[in-house]
Design goal:
The protein is an alpha/beta fold. Helices cover about 40% and strands about 15% of the residues. The chain binds FE3-S4 cluster.
Amino acid sequence: MHLTSSEELALTGEHGYAMQKAMEILAALGDIYDADQLIPIRSTQIAGVSYKNIGDPGLEWISDLNGTVRVQSILNPAGMDRVRWRELGISEEFAAKQEAVIRAYEKLGISTWCTCTPYDITSDLASSGDHLAWSESSAVAYANSVIGARTNREGGPSALAAAIVGKTPNYGYHLDENRIPTIAIRVEGSLSGSDYGALGYIAGAIAKSGIPIFSLESTPSNDERKALGAAMAASGAVALHYVKGMPPAPPVLRASSAPLTSQPDASNISENITIEHREIEEVYLENQCEPDLITIGCPHCSPRELAKLRDLLTDKTVTTEMWVFTSGAIRDRHPDLVLGIESSGAKVVCDTCMVVTPVCERYGCMMVSSGKALAYVPQMCGADAVLGSLEDCVNAAVGS
Ligand code: F3S
């Protein structure tokens, strides 16, 4: 990968230790993936925050870095709610380590809102056409597929390195030729809410690391596309999808040097499949178990999703534990929604999620409204997981 003279100097340590380490990571990545150059980015979203996942080696590595990030940067969910961790049964020792991790990131100038839906906090992080270095797989899918920005699925260290340098190697989803649909998926029947998570759970396993383009009978909201992309990134490794008739449209590569246009193109499609509505219904019937915990908010709930849940819980009392995950920023901006949900006995939990908190290991069967959580909870928490619609989850929580 070509480096400018200033980037070469950074690599030799001329601009300090943190910049040198960051440049080493980016240069190595660029060489591995045959990038031609480093390109400027607008923002980063950095994974590797939960102490459950990174442990002491990760904490030490981040703490050793001195410097300041050059672009807006935000953290992925941590291992606990930073305010209510005692209520969730987090140990003092874990909480101290987790806070140390977050403070080490903060020292570098990174925003400490810990969330996988940073686009719900601010529109300043990404717009259509922006290059980004985001880590969390559902956030990457949303940035590429809904916002129309461009990001690879970064590891925590490479996103942090990109934040410090303000650039990322130009390869993968940054390039038009890697953003062409490879599999066409026609879906029969109308879908809503968690059906999109169920669809993503099926489609991700089929598409693997391909780029699906969907023909749908219903028009998904952005929250529903968030659920679809999150599930495909978990059951497969899908980082970009398209929905016919909705922006962004895929680029079209021309054989000549003529400029790229932006019209749907089926020329790279290697597979055409149909998913029947019956298959989506069957996802709800997998792993039937009696839930001892109901969780909502994977990815973190938007204000619209919180409002829907608040309406469903009005005048009801939760008898099985129910946790609702969102970012601390959304909690602070919508105290009425939080109060409405918590009046039922459900808990609104921030900064973390059912997968990255160590507390999830206490439960035997989790009901989730998310295709991503359905895929990850058994692996990451050792619990069974059963999918329910938002209404199913509320009914299970209130015992009706
Ligand atoms: Fe977000 Fe955790 Fe799900 S990071 S996408 S809520 S697994």
